[in-house]
Amino acid sequence: MKIQLLAMLISLAPADPAPAVAANPDMLRAWDGYVESARSRMEERLTSAKPFLWVQESEQRMRLLRDGGIPVETSRTNGPAALTGGLIHDWIGAVYVPGVTASQILAKLDEYEAYTSFYKPAVVDARLLSRDGDTRRFSLRYAKKVSVVNSVIDADYETSYFHSGSNRWWSICRSTRIQEVEHQGKPDERLQPIGAGAGYLWRYYSITRVMEVDHGVVLEMETIALSRDVPAAVAWFVNPIVNRFSRSALRTTLSQTREAVLHDDRAHAAGLFASER
User: Fold this and answer.
1) Which of 22, 159, 210, 214 has an alpha carbon 20 to 30 Å from 148's alpha carbon atom?
2) C-alpha distances in Å from residue 137, one per residue of 16, 64, 87, 155, 172
3) Tens of pLDDT, residues 95-129
């Protein structure tokens, strides 16, 4: 569900481990403003000022979706939003899952402790912390190696689900704790203090939309992340790589989600046929 985020940000990793950096107060205020604007755009989709789904805004996207493709684009035509010392990344994508209901999609997304199976190999640990009505709190640990850099992030999240109309559901997820991990899996493994480390990920926010359509469901994700910036001297080289990696990572996450839902559906069908023999 959230692994595309880490893949995107770790692709910023340089050839050598990055020096420690920290998010500054001005950067965090800009982040809060950006997140509020994303929430406002979501409100427009709920009031019919815009289509509920991003893919509905483009016939080309819809055609790709109907053909089994997974459209993924950056929400910012000029690339990540540059702040003093940081970047805001904003990507959106969608997938069509045939022959299932929204309840099946939502139930699969709610299986947090199975994320290590759904989203392997990036998710190495996943734990549900609490359920309170339509709110979930959970913890994920991501691991990724890029070049000679091993990056591991351990984080807590809070997701709230909402129902809007007879065939539409949506959720908002935000990070509540993010820490980098040193020496993952070794006796001296430790969590770095919050805000310390290389700055591959400081904040996370996402909006997920689920809509039942003819013969299936469309699942759409917008993921927004705050990371350290890319040094100007290498931005010309690094930014295109980040964009390609980000698009591929989000597409993989959506594909893995579709496969997890369809696998259960196929397994259920196989069990029914077996019982009829």
Assistant:
1) 22
2) 34, 34, 26, 11, 12
3) 999 999 999 999 999 999 999 999 988 899 999 99
Alpha helices in 47-176 (DSSP H): 59-66, 102-109, 115-118
* Sign of the alpha-carbon torsion through 66, 43, 242, 121: negative
Crossing angle for the helix pair 232-276 and 102-109, to the nearest 10 degrees: 120
- In the chain, what is the greatest distance between 2 CA atoms, to the nearest angstrom? 67
Which is nearest to 154 in space by CA: 165, 162, 143, 144?
Answer: 143
Question: In whole angstroms, how far apart are CA 256 and each of 48, 118, 120, 169, 261?
Answer: 30, 6, 9, 20, 9
What phi, psi does 161 have (nearest 5°)? -105, 145
**What global pTM score does this model have?**
0.84
DSSP character at residue 49: S
